[in-house]
Amino acid sequence: MDFLTGEILYIDKPLGWTSFDAVKRLRGMILRRYGIKKFKVGHAGTLDPLATGVMIICTGKATKRIEELQTGVKEYVAEIALGATTPSFDLETEIDATYPTEHITRSGVEETLRKFTGRIEQVPPAFSACKVDGHRAYKAARRGEAVDLKPKVLVIDEIELLSYSQTSITVRVVCSKGTYIRALARDIGESLGSGGHLTALRRTRVGSVKVEDCLSVDAATTLISETPIEYPENYEKPENSGCV
């Protein structure tokens, strides 16, 4: 593999890591391996720290493909707690309200999920990277300020109910770029006449890339460290780089 010219890596992002954490780790390994001080590495689609799964990371000239790769259809498996809400719509913040769930039935959940397939409008979470007046919404939300976000149009191709109880459901979602599964959890809870927030999320596919195709971060750094170095033609190798 030629990371310096440009490669695309499929990573299974660990729980608790930001997308930037994963990029930083791989960039750091490439910098050390090639003995250079600056290098372009980016990812094709952010994953929240509390989510795991498929991340596509591009190096060098392959970063020019990021926009193209971001457009791939996404697949997620999401666990949603019913009967309670949080300001962030996930476990980042504490529960702020509780609601009854005794009326929620499996058939009612299945009927509700059908309402969210196709072309829909979704208001993004206040705790998100969406910009309001040039600033990231989550910064204002974490200061306790009100955030006014406009609905966005997106497409949900499939929602499959994988497991059900009156207080928790697990769903598989196939959707377009820009879909916030946290916001979907909120909206499903409201539609059920209750509340809802995300308790676990795994991205299982981006385009044709499945989570089974992905490397752990440790395996990816090992791959970089063990790949023989081939500098591109006319590339000026850094002096005293320590590379072999």
Task: Please give a structural write-up.
This protein has 244 residues and is of the alpha+beta class. Helix content is 23%, strand content 30%. The protein contains six helices and 13 strands. The protein has helices at residues 19-34, 66-70, 106-114, 137-142, 181-191, 217-226; strands at residues 8-13, 41-43, 51-59, 74-82, 84-85, 97-98, 118-122, 131-132, 135-136, 152-164, 168-175, 196-206, 209-210. The strands form three sheets. Strands 1, 2, 3, 4, 7, 10, 11, 12 and 13 form a nine-stranded mixed beta sheet that branches. Strand 2 (41-43) and strand 3 (51-59) form a beta hairpin. Helix 1 packs parallel to helix 6. It starts with 7 loop residues before the first strand and ends in an 18-residue tail after the last helix. Residues 239-244 have low confidence and may be disordered.
